Amino acid sequence: MDIRIKWYYRLGFLLLLFIVLFVFIKLAPIWLPLLSLLVKIISPFVIGAFITYLLHPIIEMLHKKGFHRGLAVATIYILFFGGIGYGIYKGIPVLINQLEELSESAPELAKAYDNLIASIEGKMRNWPVNIQEKVDNSIQSFEVKLNSLLSKVMNGAMKIINSSIVIMLIPFISFYMLKDIEAVRKATKGVIPKKWRQSVRLFLLDVNKSLGSYIRGQLLVCTVIGVISCLLFWFFHLKFPLVLGIIIGITNVIPYFGPIIGAIPAVIIACTMSVKMLIIVVIIIVVLQFLEGNVLSPYIVGKSTHLHPLLIMFALLFGEEVGGIIGMIVAVPVLSIAKVAIIHIRKHFGKRGQEVKGS
After folding, report:
1. Domain extents for the chain?
2. Which of 184-193, 237-246, 334-343 has the highest mean pLDDT?
């Protein structure tokens, strides 16, 4: 009888949970605008905290070597944001110019692409009908996904441009977080209940151990790959080298699928120029991926996340379904944090179980 009552309680709890979720979803028109507003307000603080997280270890290292903390903060801050500012100052006019050229060349590129597809279809006329249909369906599917990807990228770029005022706040937020890191820690510690502080501290230490070197290393590798690809594209006179280099650098942060996604625009542009250029671009991409996979990542990033490749692939596919390219970029860090959280939850409940048995 007791077992039946327990099952009734469990079923009742699940039913209540589904009702709450149903009501929550139905009330989305009310809370969704508020959530959107909250995200806009919090976003610069989150990005500022992330930059602080990236720069803080370097500042601590300089401080331990004898640098005054304020001088270390000012030096790293000026080098980091000064470098970014100089890159934007020099790069934005070139980037805008190349984007304008790309926009003006869009009809010409589309025509060259159509000619390429027509040439492929012409060579397939003697192939079996089933194979022709499969190839045609694959080309159409690729075109749909490419259009969707390009529209998402353009929408994202427009959102960034429209958020320029918010972006300007990030350096100031990062500076005060770096300067008053101890005050931020104390404030955060004060929010957490005393009984949870030790568990939260251990959890954050494990997350930092699992994720810190991965994020910093991955950002460095992506920057190196992006810069090298941009220089090589420029050296071999590929059109829009800066735009294509930035795309390859950003997408390279996505494991496994990133290099393929980043290579697609460069390959398409090369196809519209010449077969020789296509071969050069393919060689460049293959060499860069060999360099990244066998030299840069093993030494700079390492295997700090300790995640199985199948888990990473599942997370990437799930992230793509939920948030597109951004979802794929954050998939591995989120998975790594989830793994650490599950380990800590298991330890916590394991200790509680032992305490109950002991009592």
Report:
1. 192-359
2. 237-246
Token duo for residue 292 = 């990244």
DSSP letters spanning 53-109: HHHHHHHHHHHHTT--HHHHHHHHHHHHHHHHHHHHHHHHHHHHHHHHHHHHTHHHH
**Which tens digit of pLDDT belongs to each residue from 171-215?**
888 888 888 877 777 777 777 777 777 777 777 777 777 777 777
Q: What is the largest CA-CA distance in the chain?
A: 80
**Are the C-beta atoms of 149 and 325 separated by less than 8 Å?**
yes
Q: Tell me how far apart the terminal alpha carbons of the chain are, to the nearest angstrom.
A: 26
Give the residue among 342, 307, 315 at the shortest CA–CA distance from 254: 315
Distance CA 99, CA 241 (A): 11
Burial class (CB in 10 A: 0-12, 13-18, 19+), 253: buried
Place of tokens 């590129």: 109
Helix (H) or strand (E) holding 193: none
3-class state of residue 200 by DSSP: helix
Residue partners of 339: CB distance under 8 A and separation at least 6: 210, 307
Nearest to 202 by CA among 349, 51, 345, 46: 345
Cα gap 168→47, rounded to integer Å: 12
Count of alpha carbons within 13 angstroms of residue 299, beta-carbon side: 6
Mean residue pLDDT across the chain: 76
Contacts by residues 232-235 (CB-CB < 8 Å, ≥ 24 positions apart): 232/284, 232/288, 233/266, 233/281, 233/284
CA distance 302 to 297: 6
Q: Which of 157, 212, 213, 162 is nearest to 325 (CA)?
A: 157
